[in-house]
Every structure is written in C-alpha cells, then in structure tokens.
Amino acid sequence: MPSFFTKKKNKASRGEEEENGTQPEQSLDKSKSKEQNANFGPSDERASTPPPTYDKSGQGTSHDAPPSFDVATSSAQGLSPTNHLTSLVASFANLKLETQKDPDVDTCIAHLRFIHAIQNLKEEIGYHDGLWNLWDSRAGPVSALEDGELNEAQIADIKTKLSHLREKRWALYVARAVDRYQLWWQAIAGDRLMAKEVHNKNSPRWVEFPNGTTDFSWTEDQLPSLDVLMIWHTHMLNPRCYLEDAMLWGLRELWTTGMPWAVLNKALDPKMAYSPSSECRMNWETLTGVKWENELGPTTKIVDCPACKQPNDVAWTTCSLPETYKGVADPGLTGNGYGDGDFKQTCTDCGVVITKSLLSVAKLVRDTNNYIENDITMPGSVLHPESGMPPNPDQISDVILPNHLAKQALESQLDNFMNNSSGNLPNMLTIKDLFSKVLSTEQGVSGIRDPNGHVAESASPNNGTRPLLKRPEAVQIRKMMSRYWENHSIFALDLVAAVMRQGTFIEKAVRLNWLFSPVIRQSMDRFCQKYQRFLLIMHEDSMHLCVPTLDVDLVWHTHQLAPRAYYKSTTTHSGKLALRKAKFVDHNDKVEESTLSRSFERTSATYLAKFGEVYSECACGFCEAIHHKNSFPNGPSMFSVGKNKVQKAIYDFQNAQPPPPSERTAHISAHNASEQPPTRAYIGEYIRKAWELKLDESYDRAVKRAGKKGRKLPSKGEYYSHWGRKYFIYGPQSAPTFLSDKLYSGSSPASMVSPGADPAWATCAMGACGQNDIAAGGCGGPGGCVQWGNHALGNHGILTGLGVASAAGAGGCGGGGGG
Which Pfam families match (predicted)? Predict the structure, then answer.
C-alpha cells in the first residue's frame, strides 16, 4: 500500500462516534432492494436501454468519421443479447489501461464502464422506496397510476412528487458520500502545505508539485467504496480546485496517479456493479472508521458547535415520515438536517443555532488561525489566477495575498470572533465587511502586500474612486473568498452540488448507450480525434468560451482523470501558441444560460468552418436549427449559387439521415445551464426570449428546406425524463426544473445563487469585486477561469470569470458549463 494509505489516523474519535451512532430505523435488505428494482421495466418509472447513438453512414471503421448508425444497428441485431454481452465482457477484460497518460480508446471505455456503475448506483438509491423513511406513498396513490382512474393532471402531479422524492434520496446519499469522502481524504493526507514553502520559489511541494512524482500501482483492496470513488471522480473534474486541494493536503501521489483504471475495471462485474474484495472493505473500515455501505451508516452525525466547540448529535434529514403515517403534517423535502437544504441545529450546550453559513465562517476562522499559529497556507493562495499554475517568482506576492488579508482583518478578533455573548454571531457578510475595511485604504492595501506592515487608524477611505488592488490581486482575493461562500467543507468547492450537476452528464452518456455498441472502439477513436480538434479551437480562441458536445465531453473528462497528464498536455499546448503564456485549462461547470447558448453556437460554427464537418452530429430539432443558422448566418440569399464548404458539409450530414433521438435517450448537444442570479433575472428572460425567437425562425426555415428534399424534421421540443417525470427543455440553455428546488445540502446545483437567497449574500469585498453576485465562474469560484483581455473589467470593476465550458450541465460536471 502507498504511504498515504498506511498512515494511521491520529484522531479517529469522530469516526468511532459515527460507528456507534444511531442506526437507521429500517435496515436495508439488499436482496429485497434488488428485487424491487427488478420490477421496474421499460416504463416511465425506469429508463429503458436506448438504441445505439447517432452516427454518420457509409464510413464503417474509418478513423475519419463516426461509424454508421445503420451498421451499428444491424450489427447489434445480428448478435443474440447473450453472445453480444459475452463478447463485450471479454473485450472489457482485455483493455490496456495505464495511468498518467492522455485519453485513448481503452481508457474512454473504462471510464464509460465506471459511468454506468455510478448511474446504476443512482437508480438503486433513488428508486429504493422507504430509504431513510422517504416513501413513495407520500406522492399520492402511486398504485393508481396505471389503473386508468386518474386524470392527466393527477398523474402529472404524482409523477412530479415521485421525481422529487427520488431526487431527495439521491441528494441525501450524495451529501453522506461527500462526508465519507472527506474522512477518506483526511485519512490518506500527507503533510499540510506551509506558507514558508509557498514563499520558496524552489519548493518541490509547491512549484514542482504539478509535475508529479513516481506512479503507484494500486491494488483492488485499496479502492474506497463506490460512493467515495464517485465524489473523487467529480473532484478531479474540477482540475484547478483539485490541484489546489491536493497541494494543500500533501497528496502528490494521488494527484500523479489519477484514477486507477486497471484496478477499477477489474472491480466492475459485467452488469457494471461494483464488487470489490472483502479485504477492500476491511481496509476501508479500518482507515475511516465507518461502514462500507453508505446507506447503512448512522442516521445522525456529530457536528461541533462553532461557538462553544461542544459536539452535537444532529440528524442527517428531518424530512422522514413512517410509511404508516396517517397525519396531515408533511415536513416537506427541504428539511433542517445536516444533509438537507436548510440545516439548523440548536447547540445543546450554548444555545447557538448552527447553520451551514455559520459553519462556513468557522471554516474561514479555522483556516486563518492555522495560518497565523501553524503557518499553514490558506485555500485560494496557491495557484496564480490567470494561469492556474504555481506562480513565477515575480508573481508570488500576488498569489499569497489572501494569507495576509485574512491575518490583517481577523487576527485581533480571532479569540472572541465566535463568542455568542453578544447574541450576534458573524456570517460571511461580516467577513466581507472586515475585508472591505482593509481594502478601502491605501495603507490597508500596502499593509497586506507587506506582511510586516501596519494599517494606520487615520487612513482615509478610498471611496471607490479608483482601484487599489492590481488585477491579479483582486481575483486572487475573490478566489479565496469563493472557497467559503456556501461551502463549509475542507475542499475548494461544494462537491454535493458538483456531483448533482455531473449526474446530468452521466445519465445522458448512459442513455446514448455508447458502451454496448458493437462498434464502440471505432466510436471512441472518433471521439478522441474530435476532442483533439476541440482542444485546438479552445487554445487558438482562448478569449471565447468553448462548449463541447457530449462525445467530446466524455474524452475531456477522461483526460482530467489523469491529472498530471492533463496538466502537462494543456500547459504545453497553450504555451506553444505565439505570444501566449502556458495555462492549466480548467473545466467550468457553471455558465449562465445565455452565455452557454451563444458559445455553443459559436463553437459549432468554428468547428464547421475549420474542419468541414458538422460539430453536433445530431438530427434533433434544436441541432437542425443550429445547422441552418450556421449554413445561412445572414439568411439565404437569392443570389447564392451552389453550396459553400459549410453548406455542403451540412447537406452531406443531413443526407445521411441519422434517426432523431427518442425521449428515452439524449441528443449529443444536450446540456444544462445555470440560471441567472435574481439581480439579473429580467435580463436573462429577455435574452432567452430573443434566443427562442431566433431559433424558431431558423427551425421554420430548416423545416421548409427539408420538406423540399422530402425529409421530415423531428419536433424542436425535447423531453428530458427524470425519475419517471418528463421535463420540457428548449436548446442547451435550459436548466432542468427539478434542480431548482432546495433539496440539496449546499448551494443549488442549477443556479448561480440559491433560491430565495438575499441578492447580497455573495457580494465580494469592496476593492476586490464591487457589489455583485459571486458565481461559480464569474467570481473565480469552483472551476472558474478568468478572461485576461482588454475587456476583462466588467460592470462595477468586476473581472469576468470566463473559462472553458462543458456541455452537460450546471456541474455537469461542478466551473463554467461543465458536464
């Protein structure tokens, strides 16, 4: 076992407390659960296996184009299900898998297998009726759905409630998984990164960290449980956040090796179930002190009061009701438990109401105290905000500025900061005000640039007449602050929300059914080629957001799961461009809907013009409208003669007539976006309407042109099925409505600002950002990249957080548009 696994825990008390905590009221019978799940057939209650994905026709096994959809279908029909599965299982066993390498066919296939395992886990948990006393019967007479006695409105109401109940089970499971992942991370952690090492330009644990170290050969008994692997998977899909966290916690071996595909592939059975050895379970429980099965763990958690440090036993959820409950009171699905959307717990000792907001303040106070007393550097003070890499010697002072700001603003108050005697405990707005006070004067800014400086009491305020901070300094402070807004975990981002967003990509990748295609290797080879083209566009046009289709996103994600290889590849290629600096390309999974829509259209047009091939190889109504817009950007002209290269590429693609996706599958351009913050919602609504009008116009023209050729286009409307409930979406900019409800233990996965939040909740410190909402990308939060061009300063002196977007979602994979 590697050094970070053999290390013994110094403090296992909390794990022991959880181990001895209250057990669930009803234990899970695994065999019963599987039996119940098996009853769901290809109905609206469970997603059926879709046909093979779209493909161009007539190309066979060519490396220059995806295989034919017709060939894929006929090949599948020529094999019996048993023979086909046997063949697939044999091919899975022969995958050549390594770590520290760029993505290839075998690694992408292994990644797909893992994605299927996560989706199977999600369905097992979400459809497990009664898990944590969340019963389907709360949705109404579920048994009457098929008897014809209910009208359409009643059926829709029950299915909507069922959808939310199932989503709640999964959201609660993910919250517990993140907590377990944190235990695992701390158990394997090395020495914390010290500020003196950050000040050293030759530090191997800082400057040289991304270059990695020797690889480690994993064995199956060292793998954590599937839920923890799932959180680790999402963590790595936020590359800059993951690099920072790995550096802060001394996990260079973990960073270097990445996902151990060879070992993980062996632990997956033919049905994509995760079945590690008994030694694996024993090692996990010894290392963390908690049970292997997430759902069998205690229903309560120990939380220390931020004010008096008294341990409190709090419920994971307060949304439970017994199955036989006959009363009228319903606790709803928001809840006040630790895994709920509105956590509140009164301390049994001092009476303080513990909330996630208070825990976030406590995290910042703890990190500041660790810096002052133990010289442990603070989150957000490790990587340069422009490059995402350890800084050059002349950039060090900009990067470490948050350490000095926190010390200057908080050191004199740390002893009494969380004192409840006044009855008014601080929140993150209190922190913002303290930081603003320091940043509002010339003396204050000079003081944080010089750690030995002194802030004069008589310093005159700046009153916002001109910026006091340099651009990198301002962004770095915002990076640090984003580590605490609605995030009290030890990580750089809210992993619960990130996993929920990533789940939308996983579900779509499973529905596209790439894994069980008889021509999977040819398809993966084509996807890898398309990904390289995507990277080329992204590096050449770094001032604009690039949005991948789902096939590109799969390979992009696979690349990120080899962190050292991904770092080396992106920094090398970005640095080779003329007059460009090397950058560690981030993966941003929160982009506002209007930005995502425009960026996807631009990426499609750029790809089409550059390579002479259709980017979104899908015949759904939305994609056909985009094809028409790219073919005739200014409308068809009566003087047009013949076809240009772009029009010919679209014409050839359309003549292949790939079948449109059904509502049970996903189309290749389907992504979710983040909703507009409340302060800009009216602008978002105007932009959305304008986009829909333009798309309608393009679609109507595309229908007429197709009709002249004897073709019939599918409906422009698409339905996205979630837990048996259909949701209407229109283009890539729509965030699924089910993600808008406050079901989750943290920030809302789909929104830049949580529903019902005060618009001022995430205002940055004056001088660093001005009065504006913090967004995951916009204020340099999880995954956020920063645009460093002539127009980098936006309204209110805000540096626009612009990075690369991923197609699947509001996290679809966790910064700007990730999947």
Answer: GRDP-like
